[in-house]
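User: Hello! I'm new to structural biology and keep hearing that structure can be predicted from sequence alone. Could you demonstrate with DUF805 domain-containing protein? Please show me the input and the output so I can see what each looks like.

Assistant: Of course. The first part below is the input, the amino acid sequence of DUF805 domain-containing protein. The second part is the output, the predicted structure written as tokens.
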Amino acid sequence: MTFGNAVSVCFSKFATFQGRAARSEYWYFTLFLVLANIVLTIIDAVTGIGVLALIFALATLVPSIAVSVRRLHDTDRPGWWYLLFFLPVIGAIVLLIWFSTKGTTGPNRFGDDPLGGGEIPAALEAQA
């Protein structure tokens, strides 16, 4: 998934908490949020307005939570684990590790593999 594709998918699935999100989708969207926040903070500082970054943060709050929940689904964890975010330090570390790990190959209880990986073909399974 490309940077632009990830951003457009996350905004098109604005409040979709079902399904799965690949690592690239999650991390590209996170990169977009960080870069946009830096740019808007600089604009706020130069112009003295001071609200652009806040408005952007509020506007992207739901999409960022939604993609985080879908990322947890990709690792076969319920979205409720996102509440670990409210535990100081430890919760953020655990979530960072989970967001960085490879998702479940093939379908899981939350949907199909976002990368298109399916079941292992019978011919390859017989060789193992």
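User: So the tokens describe the shape?

Assistant: Right, they're a compact way of writing down the 3D structure. Reading them back into a model, for example: Residues 3-127 form one domain.
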